[in-house]
Design brief:
- The chain is 1% helix and 49% strand.
- It is built from one helix and 38 strands.
- The strands form nine sheets. Strands 24, 26, 27, 29, 34, 35, 36 and 38 form an eight-stranded antiparallel β-sheet that branches. The protein has a six-stranded antiparallel β-sheet with strand order 28-37-30-31-32-33, with no helix packed on it.
- Strand 32 and strand 33 form a beta hairpin.
- The termini are close together.
- The protein binds (Z)-L-Arabinonhydroximo-1,4-lactone.
């Protein structure tokens, strides 16, 4: 059968996976968004259901002033002795920590800190011992993949951290994961940076602290040599085996907005490739060491159908699952139901990377989308935004001025802030806001009292990661600001993907 990559489109970077019986669990990074660490389940590796988030409480996820290169970095999920562990880094507060749960559908523990530096932590369990690794500096001052034993109850280091591998020479050695397969230890990591040079490399050894021998044909997976191919930046992966004993890798990659245009907006997404061991115990990955938009495999049952992304409305999405707040929300600003979101705007806005702006967003998962929502706001401003960072966002909104109420299109790109439109509308009117997105541009339209107003358009590339220099992807947000005691009301939200991919 054929399947399509990405298996999870949109900003879901740094995937980590584990399997319990016939169920796969996966987590991703979440940066400044709350709740943190999206959690997915799947039976077939192709269709994933988001069951919630791992970090759901402010006590687990302090995000003060976290921006799109702050907050929660790469998590790792592991299952050991009936318990799930998720280990990650809050780069804005507290560093490395892990949480655990005995019920993947339930709440997770309070954070347990590990006093070891580095990012991209991982856990490995063997013979009653728990090992923690990260890409950091060991107790002797050596930088690389560092490993120590910890007390899994307290997070306390039981041994000094030791550098066990320095990779193959590529810059930014990160995302180390250790596996024991067929009696050998395999240490897999990424190098090259999370941009166009990204790659997966590995080494193996017979002792847990090494020495590790690099695979002779590293990188085992990269798209860096595929020019003119939209899928780029393959790296940061994790291995898992299925119930039939086949090995797979989930990893991140991004899709350029077009074949020859080196910009991407939908963030780093989850991709899947088969992994094959040879007779000597070395493995290869993907399609000749690359990841393709369409992959062919005989390892997944032919009757598994990769489901398209459904139209998203308030009724079929959930706050805290699909919808995320920015940083730690002030919950008194939100009254949310299946038919309407009511949101009170404060002085905290989308323009800075601080505070608790009143915002709820879902990931933009495809480039060709049609997004509509009806807004009414009695004071201040409320609308929809395509938000990449505080310095890159396009907003369509109803805004109150001293002379009345108007519909505006605000495009912010770095220092440039342009506000267009200024279409007068009756105060408190219900205005339908609409964004028609394709690969290159977004058209903004408003409908009020039966009249349609074209507000203008914005280029997608100015929202791209290449411009923003960040780690997230575009969020489709609803926001309110400075509404005083009043609440803005959002109804009839619909986000429709116009590109229904079919791997066939
Ligand atoms: C993450 C690192 C990376 O910690 O990007 O692509 C960083 N890989 O492993 C942020 O997601």
């Amino acid at each position: 059968m054929k399947y399509r990559n990405p298996i999870i489109p949109g900003f879901y970077p740094d995937p980590s996976i584990c399997r319990v019986g016939d169920t796969f669990c996966m987590v991703c990074s979440s940066f400044q968004f709350f709740p943190g660490v999206p959690l997915f389940e799947s039976r077939d590796l192709l269709n994933w259901t988001q069951i919630g988030h791992v970090l759901t409480r402010e006590s687990q996820l302090p995000l003060k002033d976290a921006n799109s290169v702050g907050g929660i970095y790469a998590p790792t999920i592991r299952y050991h002795n009936g318990r799930f562990y998720m280990v990650t880094t809050n780069v804005s507060f507290g560093g490395n920590f892990y949480v655990w749960t005995d019920d993947i559908h339930g709440e997770w523990s309070e954070p347990i800190r590990v006093e070891q530096d580095g990012i991209d932590p991982s856990l490995y369990f063997e013979d009653g011992k728990a090992y923690f690794m990260s890409n950091g500096t060991d107790d002797a001052g050596m930088h690389g993949v560092v490993q120590c034993e910890i007390d899994i109850e307290t997070g306390r280091k039981l041994t000094p951290a030791k550098c066990i591998w320095q990779g193959t020479g590529g810059r930014f050695l990160e995302s180390p994961h250790l596996y024991k397969i067929g009696g050998r230890y395999y240490l897999m990591a990424a190098e090259g940076g999370t941009e166009y040079g990204h790659m997966i490399v590995y080494a193996r050894g017979s002792e847990i602290y090494g020495p590790f021998e690099s695979y002779a044909h590293n990188p085992v997976l990269t798209n860096r040599n595929l020019g003119g191919y939209v899928l780029q930046g393959c790296g940061h992966g994790d291995l898992v085996d299925d119930v039939n004993g086949n090995w797979w890798m989930v990893h991140l990659a991004f899709r350029q907005i077009d074949q020859w245009v080196m910009h991407h907006t939908t963030g780093r997404e989850v991709n899947l490739v088969p992994v094959t061991f040879d007779a000597d115990g070395w493995f290869t990955a993907g399609d000749n060491g690359t990841t393709r938009l369409v992959m062919e495999t005989d390892r997944i049952a032919a009757d598994v159908v990769q489901q398209p992304i459904p139209d998203k409305t308030f009724a079929n999405t959930k706050v805290g699952v699909d919808w995320c707040y920015m940083r730690n929300p002030d919950f008194s600003c939100y009254e949310l139901s299946e038919t309407a979101f009511r949101m009170r705007g404060t002085k905290d806005t989308l323009e800075t990377e601080t505070g608790r702006p009143t915002f709820l967003g879902i990931r933009q998962q495809e480039m060709k989308q049609e997004i509509t929502c009806t807004v009414s706001v009695p004071a201040g401003e409320a609308g929809m935004t395509l938000y990449m960072t505080a310095e890159q966002h396009y907003d369509i909104a109803v805004s109150h001025t001293e002379t009345g109420s108007e519909v505006i299109l605000r495009r912010r790109v770095g220092d440039l802030i342009v506000v267009d439109g200024h279409i007068p509308v009756p105060s408190g009117a219900k205005v339908q806001l609409r964004m028609d997105c394709d690969n290159f541009a977004i058209r903004f339209t408003a409908v009020c009292d039966g009249t349609t107003y074209a507000l203008g358009s914005g280029r997608t590339k100015y929202l791209s990661t290449e411009l923003a220099g960040n780690f997230t992807g575009v969020m489709i947000g609803l926001y309110a600001k400075e509404t005083g005691d009043a609440f803005a009301e959002f109804t009839e939200f619909c986000c429709r993907c116009l590109e229904k991919y079919d791997a066939e």
